[in-house]
Amino acid sequence: MLNVIRYVRLRPFDQQTEQGRAAERYRLAAVSIIANVLSRVFGIALTLLSVGLTLPYLGAERFGIWMTVASFAAILTFLDLGVGNALTNHVAQRAALSDRPLLRSTISGGLGFLAIIGVCIGALLCLLAVSLPWEKIIKVTDQALLPEVRIAAIGFALLFGANIFSSGVARVYVGMQQGFIVHLVTAFTTVFACVAMWYAAETKQGILVLLCIVMGAQIINGLVLLVKLAKDGLFSIRCSVFGVVAESKFLIKAGGLFFLLQIGMMVGWGADSLIIANALGAAQVAVFSVVQRLFQFATQPLNIINAPLWPAYADADARGDGDFIRKTLRKSMLLTFSLATLSAIVLLFIYPWLVKYWTQSAITAGFGFVALYAVWSVLDACGNAFAMFLNGSGVIGLQVRVTTLFVLIALPLKMLLVHDFGISGLIGATVFSYIICVAAVYGYMYRRFLFKF
């Protein structure tokens, strides 16, 4: 992307000119893309292992339970109160000022605030996990599985609380346009997670252990990155304690819109597995999850390319570099649409063979459902590319309004069609609602966004 090879170098570009600053943003993005590819290769291996090794011994229903509980991570992303995303932009703006003490205060106070949020949310989710009627939330044919569901939910609650903080550490590096460090650390921890997943499958471990392997790797990432921050003089416990109050006031205010946006995304996108589990049973979640992960081979590489552009847009916006934003957005959208469409078509033609051998014939997916998911994967990839621009440029209010409109139309439509048409109805409702509520609005606003800069 954007003549990447030219920017792949260890030596920074001269940032005394606007052209040099633009080149440095691309260099950091290119390095981050390469590191992310390495990380994702191991991530893909973990995904393949988590399905191929565990589905045969867990069975469709227990595997569906695991996928449902794991999907809570996407549903509950809003529980960091939008502080993680606000911290990314805040760090990017402070980094552009080249004031190291101020940057250290921002990072330390922000992470201290996230630690408090993580502890509170973890405790709250534990109480819910103990008290919720899981037999009504997740339909299972074997009632003996319900205790395992509850234990898995409690384990998830604790892991999720810790992940709020560890994800915040990663967001700090993203804000400093050093996402490549996050990806390199992730690559190493994912290797150990793959080994642990293989051992868990060999010893036929339960859902809780599998959750700990996947989510625990993310927590370890955060701890390693925190140590590096402290070593580099960008984090200290003392600054964290004294900076929490000052930073929390700003982050709550700035994170408010991100918080509303995350709630909308949780309801509109993240709740699909829960809707399916409640309406059709955990076994159908397994089918949905396998196809979902299959099309991540189309969307994830593009997300890898576009993710480093968020802090690049934020840095350019802070410096008033509109030309960089216009050129980058145009090229990003064109590349994303072209590659997403090509990848979706290829996966649509080879999916019967892939699903058969990946799941050892334990899962079958109808062509209609897979075709609809192929369309959704293209829309999702393009939407993510555009969101990087919106987030980095601070255009959050519009995203909240658009997402709210999408939720108001998509959610009841999903609940209605999933009963009549199964998982095909659910994804069809998603595609229809996204086109009329999101793609149409942003398509209309596209040129206005470009002329703003």
The succession of helices and strands, N to C, reads HHHHHHHHHHHHHHHHH
The backbone outline, from C-alpha atoms, is globular
Beta-strand segment tally: 0
Given the structure, what is the number of helices? Answer: 17
Main sheet properties: none
Separation of the first and last Cα atoms: 22 Å
- Uncertain stretches of 5 or more adjacent residues: none
Mean pLDDT: 86
- Derived from helix and strand composition plus strand pairing, the structural class reads mainly alpha
Structural summary, described in words:
- It is built from 17 helices and no strands.
- The chain is mostly helical and 453 residues long.
- The two termini are 22 Å apart.
